[in-house]
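Deliverable D5.2: sample structural annotation.
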Amino acid sequence: ENRPKVTLPPRKRLDIALGPRYETERKLLAGRLNMLFRDRRAHAHTRLLIEAEARMSREAWTRAIDASDLVHGEVISLRTTVLGQIPEIRELQAADHMRQTVISELLRLEHRRSTETSESRTALQGQITSLQAQVTALQVQVATLQGLARDSTHPEPPEEAG
């Protein structure tokens, strides 16, 4: 072999041995590597967004459960209050029914009294009218009797025949 031996560092030897094709592939690989780094940053950002959304979702779920528990407790409390007031409500309804019965009876009695009063008034007015007629008749009789009494105390001269 007539070739002289050249001592090059291994990297230089590789560059020379592989040639331009190696450089093209190397640039492609470097571009892919850069893209992977960019994708890695995008994936990291996406992961942060998803984690934040998951955290907010868990917090919202917790608040919703807390609100639901609170409302459920209020419903139970109100139900207990209402159940405790049912006997009092029934007592009030019974008292109201009794009052309504008394009022109805009083109205019935008032109507009867009013009717009786009206009938009594009509009867009394009839009696008053009758008594007034009797008084008038008696006054006429008194006047007549007074006239007769006057005539008997003052006799009139007899009329001449003639």
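Annotation notes: The two ends are 219 Å apart (CA to CA). The mean pLDDT is 85.
The annotation will be released with the project's public dataset once the embargo ends.
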